[in-house]
Amino acid sequence: MWRAVANVLLRTKVPRGRACSLPPAHKGRTLLAGTTRHRAAPGLRAAWPLSMSPGIRKVEALDAGHLVRVEWEDGSESRYPCVWLRDNCQCPHCFLHSARARKLLFEDLDVNIVVKEVSLADRKKISITWPDEHASEYGAEWLKKRCFSEEARAEMREALFLPEHQYWGSDLQLPKMPFEEIMYNDESAYKWLCTLKKVGIVILTGAAARQGELIKLGHRIGFLRLTFYGPTWQVQDKADANNVAYTTGKLCFHTDYPVLQHPPGVQFLHCIKQTATGGETEVVDGFHACNKLKEKNPQAYQVLSSIAVDYTDVGRDYCDFAVQCKQRIIDVDSRGQAVRINYNNATRDTVFDITAEKVRPFYAALKEFNDLLNSAELKFTHKLKPGDIMTFDNWRVLHGRQSYPSGSGVTRHLEGAYADWDVVMSRLRLLRKKILNRD
Ligand SMILES: [Zn+2]
């Protein structure tokens, strides 16, 4: 229902039928390109659950007072454990509204608590009296959002985290949006971030071909992620390069900075100057490749998602550094689904902290994965133009570049920067709230 309401809200601006989602990446020729202004963003359908929850018909205590059952006017029901209700009392003694945080101390919570009395204050609110006479009230909308049913939790999860991915291969219809639009229009900025989360890559077009645009982009979302290479960094051919990116050589598919414990979630690459020949950018959907690998060679997937690789980065830039880290090439969640790729062949250490017998199986597995990444079916090639800013999910999308001839002076120049997903998702939620005019 929340979804339906969001669509109704959008319908004033959005062509019917487009409000729900982006077309699949392999269909539709203009993924956000061109006429983006009034097209719905994919995440709007996952809009923050809206008001209009049904009223409450009946409320009762069950399970000897350990559970409260709410019956809604639409006939559905929700069940709330009393320990959770007491823990989440919204009264000023238990909850600091200015910080939107719990004041109640855990040691003051009776984890075996039962209700003394529960009643329906009106159809929009329930009241509970606890054995110590403390009184709590809970609004219908507040309760509905926090319903423990599988369906309600999935809806809340989707609204908070936009977990859905749209996988792509060489058939990617590269999402593009004007830089100016996302800088000054909240709906466009929201669409940008939703697409970045869902597809993993968006090109912002028409930025000025000079340094400094990424600093502005950083202010737009909140702030950039500082690393040992500085707040932003210049990808160009440099004498005595302290990074393989700062040469004219080919870069094979990699994610940036797996040598950090928490690698940057989002990367920005702003093309300031482009070489006439070579220097094409290659990208591949790492999560899609992981699914393929799991299907094709589960053993290789198992190896890459269990063996930790040593990474190293030693040098001097923003300051001097000697960074070391252990990362699995494929980080997986409890269901074995890839959640982050940590693969950079340049900074993979010569030190390899595994037993000798495991070394060859590891290389064989990595070869399988690397071949998949480079398969014609999966990789996508694109040459950035001056003014393009490639924004992408550095936990999911691997990138590389083709070599280019070295010349006199700088023939190719990209400025790069990072942001954390926490910052990006925070901005996305705030933009959505603003657009939908919700608290
Ligand atoms: Zn209270």
Automatic annotation (TrEMBL):
<dbReference type="InterPro" id="IPR050411">
    <property type="entry name" value="AlphaKG_dependent_hydroxylases"/>
</dbReference>
<dbReference type="InterPro" id="IPR010376">
    <property type="entry name" value="GBBH-like_N"/>
</dbReference>
<dbReference type="GO" id="GO:0005829">
    <property type="term" value="C:cytosol"/>
</dbReference>
<protein>
    <recommendedName>
        <fullName>gamma-butyrobetaine dioxygenase</fullName>
        <ecNumber>1.14.11.1</ecNumber>
    </recommendedName>
</protein>
<dbReference type="GO" id="GO:0008336">
    <property type="term" value="F:gamma-butyrobetaine dioxygenase activity"/>
</dbReference>
<dbReference type="Pfam" id="PF02668">
    <property type="entry name" value="TauD"/>
</dbReference>
<feature type="domain" description="TauD/TfdA-like">
    <location>
        <begin position="169"/>
        <end position="418"/>
    </location>
</feature>
<dbReference type="InterPro" id="IPR042098">
    <property type="entry name" value="TauD-like_sf"/>
</dbReference>
<dbReference type="GO" id="GO:0008270">
    <property type="term" value="F:zinc ion binding"/>
</dbReference>
<keyword id="KW-0223">Dioxygenase</keyword>
<dbReference type="GO" id="GO:0005506">
    <property type="term" value="F:iron ion binding"/>
</dbReference>
<dbReference type="GO" id="GO:0042802">
    <property type="term" value="F:identical protein binding"/>
</dbReference>
<dbReference type="InterPro" id="IPR038492">
    <property type="entry name" value="GBBH-like_N_sf"/>
</dbReference>
<dbReference type="GO" id="GO:0045329">
    <property type="term" value="P:carnitine biosynthetic process"/>
</dbReference>
<comment type="function">
    <text>Catalyzes the formation of L-carnitine from gamma-butyrobetaine.</text>
</comment>
<dbReference type="InterPro" id="IPR003819">
    <property type="entry name" value="TauD/TfdA-like"/>
</dbReference>
<keyword id="KW-0124">Carnitine biosynthesis</keyword>
<dbReference type="GO" id="GO:0005739">
    <property type="term" value="C:mitochondrion"/>
</dbReference>
<feature type="domain" description="Gamma-butyrobetaine hydroxylase-like N-terminal">
    <location>
        <begin position="64"/>
        <end position="143"/>
    </location>
</feature>
<comment type="similarity">
    <text>Belongs to the gamma-BBH/TMLD family.</text>
</comment>
<comment type="pathway">
    <text>Amine and polyamine biosynthesis; carnitine biosynthesis.</text>
</comment>
<keyword id="KW-0560">Oxidoreductase</keyword>
<keyword id="KW-0479">Metal-binding</keyword>
<keyword id="KW-0408">Iron</keyword>
<dbReference type="InterPro" id="IPR012775">
    <property type="entry name" value="GBBH-like"/>
</dbReference>
<dbReference type="Pfam" id="PF06155">
    <property type="entry name" value="GBBH-like_N"/>
</dbReference>
